[in-house]
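sorry for the late reply, my laptop died twice this morning and i had to redo everyting from scratch. anyway the thing you sent over, i finally got around to it. pasting the sequence first so we're on the same page, its 190 residues, then the predicted structure underneath. double check i copied it right bc i was rushing
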Amino acid sequence: MPLEKIIKRIDEEFSLEIEKIKKETQGRVSEILKEAKRKAASIKEEILKAASFEAQRRRDRILTTANLEARRIVLEEKERLMEEAYKKALAKLKRLGKKSYQDIIKKMLLKAAKSGPGEVIISREDRKRITPSFIESINKELKISKEERGISGGFILKRKKIEVNNSFETLLHSKREELEFRLVKMLFKK
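ok and here's the structure:
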């Protein structure tokens, strides 16, 4: 066989082999690209899920903080309104006419003065409304003390070394929990 035919045959076989290798390589490259695209899509999906989870977590944290702040503001406003209601109640008690004021004090004294003699300590402002004769008309064993206290209304009943504070401030304070519950129901009905 002539050399040219051998070279031509080798060349043809070599071309076929090269073509076969090209097809195999393209097949592998195609497989590698498909696998890379699948991995990239999977990584992208994981990143999106993580980002979505983080965004949801941040959103939840922001909403929780906002809700807590809103509750704090509402509670502060409720407290302010209740404090205002207490001040108005105290002011209203102070502004009562002499007769109405004496009626309230009489009921309080009758309740507080059941156990014997004592002194009734009042504020300087109440000296005009709560007189010694008024106290005696309620209970002969009670006397008005010369001592005065800085209370806005009501009285302090003193027996020996024991004092029972019936000032309006103290009475309102002792009833605060009950009053707050009722005020909340009245002021903040939903």
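The beta strands are 118-122, 142-148, 154-159, 162-167.
thats about all i looked at so far, will dig more tmrw
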